[in-house]
Amino acid sequence: MPRNSYEIACNEAARNLDQQLASVDSADQKAGILMGFAGILLALLLPGRPTYSLQGVLRIAAETFLLLSVVRFYMSFRAVTMSTGLTPEGFRALIDNASPADDPEMLLNHQLSYLEDAIRSNSALITRKSEHLGKGSVMLLIALILLIVSSFL
């Protein structure tokens, strides 16, 4: 493969990796905001004394869903190590260990392989993070609906 083709492929893979990292930052930001909102609601609701009526049962259910949503948001928000491809030290090792007979495109080929592996492994982490965020959002919505319904009783 010509050197120019490797460079184009590496640039595209690096761009995809940057998009993945940006989506993780965005998901973390959303999870943090929603976790804070659910936590504040939970803190405001817990001091109340539960009653044994339909309103009290709905309120306890809402508190349970709020707590579960906070747990889901935390699971989405917690630190996950994302792969970023070959490190500068890795590049240095490849260059130092290369023999004069090695193909000049070897470095670009290794870079492309590492970027492909990083994108593949990060996709699973991003999917799991998004699932936690989505399920936490649904639980928060259910809690809010239960609170609204209980306030009309």
Number of strands: 0
- Mean of residue pLDDT? 82
Give the SSE string.
Answer: HHHH
Tally of helical segments: 4
Q: Portion of residues in helices?
A: over 70%
Question: What distance lies between the first and last C-alpha atoms, to the nearest angstrom?
Answer: 71 Å
Instruction: Give the count of structural domains.
Output: 1
Strand content: under 5%
**Radius of gyration, CA atoms, in whole angstroms:** 24 Å
Helix and strand composition category:
mainly alpha
pLDDT under 50 segments (min length 5)?
none
Largest sheet: none
Overall geometric form: rod-shaped
Short structural summary:
With 153 residues, the protein is mostly helical. It is built from 4 helices and no strands.
